[in-house]
Amino acid sequence: MTVTEKLKELYATRTERAKELKEKGQQVVGYFCCFVPEEIITAFDLVPFRLPGSQKDPIDQADAFIEPMACPFARSCFNRALKGEYEFLDGFVAPHSCDTIERLYHIWFHNHPAAFNHLINVPHMRERGAEEFFRAELHYFARCLEDWTGRKLDREKLRKAVRLSNRKRVLLRDLYELRKRKTPPLSGVEVLEIQVAGMGLPVEEYVDLLEQYLREVRSRNEKEVRPRIFLWGNVIDDSTFIRLIEDSGAWVVMDDLCTGSRSFWEDVPETADPFEGLARRYLNIPCPRSNFPRTGNRPFDLASRFGYIGDFVRDWQAEGAIFYVVRYCDTCELEAPDLRDYLREMGMAVLMLEDDYSLVTIGQLRTRVQAFIEMMTGVA
Amino acid sequence: MGEREQKKTTAVKGTTTAGLIRGLVKDIYRLAHEAKAEGKKVAYFMVASQYDEIIRAMDIVPIPTENYAGLCAAKRDMDRFLLRAEEDGYSQVLCSYARIGLGFDSLRKELGGIPENAPDGGMPEPDMMLGSSAVCDPRFKWYQAAGRYLDVPSYSIDVVAPPVQADLNEVRDYYIRYQEEQFRGLIDFLERQTGKKMDEDRLWETIRLGDEAWRLWYEIDRLRVAIPCPMPAQDHFSIMVAGHYYCGTQVAVDFYRQLYEEVKAKVEKGQGVIPEEKYRLLYGGGLPPWHTLWIFNYFESFGAVFVIENVYRGYDPVEVPAHVKDPVKYLAWRAFLRFTQRHEKAKKNSGHPLVERLLGLIQDYSIDGVVFHACRSCRATTVGQIHIKNLLGRYTDIPMMQLVSDMVDLRDYSEAQWKAQIGAFIDALQARK
Fold first, then answer.
1. CA-based nearest residue in chain A for residue B148
2. In a 10 Å sphere around its CB, with 0-12 CB exposed, 13-18 middle and 19+ buried, how is residue B5 labelled?
3. How far apart are CA B411 and CA B72, in angstroms?
4. How far apart are the first and last CA of chain A?
5. Pairing state of beta strands B279-285 and A47-50?
6. CB contact at 8 A, A202 and A47
């Protein structure tokens, strides 16, 4: 099996590798979002497993526990848990990333607890004590893991885990770098699937696969020139929507998604106290759930909030932007019009879409995506 | 603009004092306009952010943007603001309070003044916006978004609470320290905006007034254990204005003193809300349907009175340790104690502080049934209601119901559906008597 095939299989099966490791005696800790430091889990010799939902399966059990006006991704994850698809988890960790995930933690804890359950409070603000508070929360998380595992945290192991996750980040950035080419050697579908494949693996194993994959993909023939799309939103852990865009005649060349660049773009600084670097890095993830205080006039405010996206768009030469927001995400819904203004000011065409995190509803978006790409091509 | 049809949305209240609230609401916006004209600082602000006394101590005139959304709904004048926000790109599922606020700001910017016939004279343009993460995410993101219509500075604070499973002895210090730091950051910001220093004595005075108002409010609610109930939920949804929008002022204290005397007199006379109180209901949670508050009178037509609520007065008075001598530290301690006051009890029983609160209310207030209101656009007060209902069901077999609409967006409300649901609920109550 080639490494490409291996990664495709890992994407398609998602939970299988974690189950195998569990059967071999390893303990698996499931977690939500990109605010839980996988380094701490790795340092305890536990397998970090980022929880995926399922856009293919209907949410048929969770409605008895959680309201339908909650994020359908979160509901889908819990639906999977209720159906017994996460029985291999030994631990369950949620960050207080948003209202729904915080509520879901309690619902999950009461109705489907793992052996270890923990909620990490994540500040929404970044100033006046936020980093110190978050560091204390991470210390407390590690302390609770010590109680549960019966093992003391080995600081050296934590430093090693930081270096390992940073290595993963370097490799993913290298992968994204290839997408800058006018004729990228890999599609947006492949990039998403590779990232999702890595969400259920020990970091070391994933790093090894990424190194092999990069060697393979660098020698590939490049694909044809197509309109280039920047994708923004909250969570996409199924490649169907990206395939829809690419089947409509464009390439997704860059993203700002919590399952994409947002989750790995910045390294963890290697500080003397590893918790310091972890707190700083994770607190500064540019998710719409965090607050950026306004410090100047409107153009300055937009530039300070979205400047990194402006760089993405310029450096990856994106010609159009598609926003894919999983419905009921208040923070994304409030952010999107501002980002649209910012990108339009840069001369970008923007398509804002809202969806129910379901393959059924994604199909309905096809016409709008096709029309948008045709419009872009016409403009070009 | 032509005359719009004003449908009746409000409920007949149980107390005379609650009738004074309409004047207090009008005063909020009148005083804000006057302050603006006099060059005083006015600020958009979010209720229950634990910072009310700081704002009052700095003599900043607050404009509660959420209240304004509720007011528009009660006046059935919300559509033009909701639709404007949606035209500007805000989703129809986004918090409808935020949509009304953003739609209002958008129209005011376009018109260069207050939209015509805006309820209670509309909201003047603020000098600053003060958000917070207390209660929900939109309460800081909304003001960030409002920057597209308002070229004014904004500042938001975190308000943090540990989960019930946390070991309070282990986390207390750093939670309180962070809360204190966040308040100090706000004070720095306000000092820069106003050009004056915070006066500690003045802050202690507003805290004293805030605590006294909330103590009186708690005492009023305790009087409501009486059978028949002297004050119904529709009064609660009015009188909360004093505790939230006038917190830290003498106005709130005076209002609650007057209300306390009236409710006490009603209890002494055995005077209830309706002549024959058959069923005593608990409003289990969710923002009220501001567009249709008369629904409480509809329940009363079946002999059902809402005698207590689980919204707006979310915590009982707490005692901050005497060693806390600094007012900002006091506020941080108070917030922590408020948010954790049922944690230890919950650990020993249901595992959920809110369930503990509701079980306590069911017992103390001789409750026959619980009604929740799910708002389609409010994640914070809605997500988790089913869960709470399920947990409560492990401890009590009284009937429970979840009505679904929205706090202000009438498009999510169906009168026929509600009446059918209420009819079935009343049958269930009757069957248990």
1. A298
2. exposed
3. 15
4. 41
5. unpaired
6. yes
Do the beta carbons of residue B98 and residue B140 sit within 8 Å? no
* Test mutation, A33, A101, A110, A332, chain B, max B CBs within 10 A: A110
Please say if the pLDDT value at position A379 is more than 80. Answer: no
Q: Taking CB atoms and an 8 Å limit, are B379 and A289 in contact across chains?
A: no
In 3-state terms, what secondary structure has residue B248?
Answer: coil
Domains of chain A: 17-154 (3.40.50.11890)
Helix/strand/coil percentages in chain B, nearest 5: 55, 10, 35
User: What is the helix (H) or strand (E) element at residue B279, kind and residue range?
Assistant: strand B279-285
Bridge partners (DSSP) of residue A322 are: A231, A351
- A100, A130, A335 ranked by CB distance to B379: nearest: A100
Torsion of CA B83, B87, B88, B92, to 10 degrees: 60
pLDDT reported for residue B8: 67
* Residue B195: burial class (beta carbons within 10 Å; 0-12, 13-18, 19+): exposed
pTM: 0.96
Q: Letter for the amino acid at A290? A: S
* Phi, psi torsion values for A151, nearest 5 degrees: -120, 140
3-class secondary structure, B61:
strand
Give this complex's ipTM: 0.96
B314-319: average pLDDT: 96
Q: What is the mean pLDDT of chain B?
A: 96
Residue B411 neighbours by CB under 8 Å, 6+ apart? none
Q: Which candidate, B295, B313, B312, places its Cα nearest to that of B304?
A: B295
User: In angstroms, what CA-CA distances link A316 with A309, A310, B47, B260?
Assistant: 10, 10, 44, 66
Residue A77 near residue A52 (C-beta atoms within 8 A): yes
CA distance B105 to B114: 9
Q: Which of B141, B160, B390 sits opposite A65 (nearest CB)?
A: B390
Search chain B and give the residue with CA nearest A288.
B141
Interface touch B145/A330, C-beta < 8 Å: no
Q: Which two tokens stand for residue A317?
A: 């030469």
Residue type, B93: V
Encode pLDDT of A275-316 as tens digits. 999 999 999 999 999 998 787 899 999 999 999 999 999 999
Residue B273 dihedral angles phi and psi, to the nearest 5°: -75, -40
How far is it, in rounded angstroms, from Cα A120 to Cα A376? 43
In the three-class reduction of DSSP (H, G, I as helix; E, B as strand; rest coil), residue B231 is classed as coil
Q: Which residues of B touch A125 (CB under 8 A)?
A: 133, 140, 156-158, 182
Q: Identify which of B145, B181, B379 has the shortest CB distance to residue A334.
A: B145
User: Tell me, what's the pLDDT at B4?
Assistant: 45
